[in-house]
């Protein structure tokens, strides 16, 4: 539905299943993960962080629909899920 690359940022208290949760949402909607990096920040409570680049060119849903799905999942789980179009992400992170 969309030919856009997106960047998904994930932040939450570390626990099993966070990667699977996000990957399942993307797989269910035919969104391909092209790159993924994650780490756990150890400063008291371990915080899981992940950034993904995904391709929506064969997606069954629009970018806005994906953002709504991620927002609902964020409310259910307490894990912060942010999706940005790649060009917006690059613009916001220019030095």
TrEMBL record:
Query: Which first-to-last residue range defines the signal peptide?
Result: none
- List the InterPro entries hit by this protein, alphabetically: ACT-like_dom_sf (IPR045865), ACT_dom (IPR002912), UPF0237/GcvR_regulator (IPR050990), UPF0237_ACT (IPR022986)
Q: What is the organism of origin for this protein?
A: Odinarchaeota yellowstonii (strain LCB_4)
Query: What is this protein identified as?
Result: ACT domain-containing protein
Domain ACT, by residue range, is 7-87
Question: Pfam families of this UniProt entry?
Answer: ACT_6
Transmembrane region(s): none
Kindly give the PROSITE patterns that the UniProt entry links to this protein: ACT (PS51671)
